[in-house]
């Protein structure tokens, strides 16, 4: 009887969604796996009428929840989204009901501290998002508290846009399970190293001036690297990614002062995706053709390309480089227009060259014929009279020996 009542409570629904007050929509993935979406409901406390239901994921974005909330008796929860609220401190009681969470999103709050004892010392969080909490980093214990949470086996971490200016030396050396790390939209100038386990890294919108071998020497599992919009990035040494032997996707888009990369930068990596868009490139060596030919996607747009014969190999690549969207900085035309015109000019030049060769050959042959004719004529009439107007057919012998008469 008890089982029947539970089954009816969990399965009865008018449609794919069940509505609670406040207006939260419940999506039923299975009788024991529900998602509750209470976004934009202006609530100031957690909806108590859902505690008894098998809600495994709750979405509470864009509300007015503060540090006083507590997930007491929410025993089924595994994924919690508290983004865009007014939480200032992660208290000890806030998540004390849980020993583990698959995903916790605390982005875009007013967080100043995450030092709740249960959160720091006991709770296992597989994926943590602290993005856009700009008051976090000045807190003196922030790095220590966060490191304890990370080192308990965290797999995904986002610290996007929290005004990070630095990270302690070898901060991630014990982060053995960390696979995805987002440090974008900060003010970092360098990071000493990244963890071995990392497969995806985003350090876009920072103040990096160069990328080094030391930073990536442990990144033997790195597959995706996003380094976009670093305005001071000018140097990427040839050995920077030497140990990143699984690197398949690299985006260097938007680094305006990056005007060149070494020819051997991607020689040892199985690269499939590369973006060099919106940088400062004017030319690229044909040595990159081998690397570019094996790519599945390449983006070379919005660079100040100096179009000439040195870049014609772009159009011969097996990978589609979208040449109709590439523009020549020196002629203000598209690649297609420039090289189509250049091809026409080259064709006309080839024709003109052939004609000149033919004319020169004919001129030379005519001179040779005239010369040969004159030569044969002179040879044939070696003894013509000096004052004769007409040629003679027989030779004339002139003797210069004085004759003597005998008496």
TrEMBL record:
One of the record's GO cellular component terms: extracellular space
Entries under Gene3D superfamilies matching the protein: Ribonuclease Inhibitor (3.80.10.10)
Supply the InterPro entries for this chain.
Dev_Immune_Receptor, Leu-rich_rpt, LRR_dom_sf
Can you tell me where the transmembrane regions are? 351-371
Q: Which Pfam families match?
A: LRR_8
What keywords tag this UniProt record?
Membrane, Signal, Transmembrane, Transmembrane helix
Signal peptide positions on this chain: none
What protein name applies here? Leucine repeat-rich protein
Species classification? Eukaryota, Metazoa, Ecdysozoa, Arthropoda, Hexapoda
């Amino acid at each position: 009887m008890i089982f029947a009542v539970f089954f009816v409570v969990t399965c009865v629904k008018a449609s794919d969604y069940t509505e609670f007050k406040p207006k939260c929509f419940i999506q039923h993935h299975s009788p024991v796996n529900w998602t509750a979406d209470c976004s934009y409901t202006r609530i100031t406390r957690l909806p108590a009428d859902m505690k008894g239901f098998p809600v495994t994921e709750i979405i509470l974005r864009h509300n007015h929840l503060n540090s006083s909330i507590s997930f007491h008796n929410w025993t089924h929860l595994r994924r919690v989204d508290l983004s865009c609220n007014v939480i200032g401190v992660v208290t000890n009681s806030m998540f004390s009901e849980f020993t583990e969470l698959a995903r916790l999103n605390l982005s875009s709050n007013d967080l100043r501290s995450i030092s709740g004892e249960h959160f720091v010392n006991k709770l296992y969080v597989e994926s943590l998002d602290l993005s856009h909490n700009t008051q976090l980093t000045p807190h003196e214990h922030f790095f220590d508290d966060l490191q304890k949470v990370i080192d308990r086996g965290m797999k995904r971490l986002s610290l996007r846009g929290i005004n990070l200016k630095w990270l302690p030396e070898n901060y991630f050396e014990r982060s053995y399970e960390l696979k995805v790390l987002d440090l974008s939209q900060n003010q970092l100038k360098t990071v000493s190293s990244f963890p071995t386990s990392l497969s995806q890294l985003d350090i876009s919108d920072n103040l990096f001036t160069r990328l080094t071998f030391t930073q990536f020497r442990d990144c033997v599992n790195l597959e995706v690297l996003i380094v976009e919009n670093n305005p001071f990035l000018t140097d990427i040494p040839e050995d920077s990614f030497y140990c990143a032997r699984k690197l398949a996707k690299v985006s260097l888009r938007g680094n305006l002062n990056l005007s060149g990369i070494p020819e051997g930068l991607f020689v040892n990596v199985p690269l499939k995706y590369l973006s060099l868009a919106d940088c400062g490139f004017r030319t690229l060596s044909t040595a990159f053709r081998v690397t570019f030919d094996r790519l599945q996607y390449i983006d070379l747009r919005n660079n100040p390309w100096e179009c000439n014969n040195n870049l014609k190999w772009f159009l011969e690549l097996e990978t589609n480089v979208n040449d109709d969207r590439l523009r020549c900085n020196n002629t203000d035309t598209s690649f297609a227009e420039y090289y189509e015109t250049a091809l026409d000019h080259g064709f006309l030049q080839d024709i003109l060259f052939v004609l000149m060769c033919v004319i020169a050959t004919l001129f030379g042959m005519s001179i040779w014929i005239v010369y040969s004719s004159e030569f044969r004529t002179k040879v044939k009439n070696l003894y013509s009279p000096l004052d004769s107007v007409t040629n003679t057919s027989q030779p004339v012998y002139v003797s210069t020996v004085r004759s003597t008469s005998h008496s």
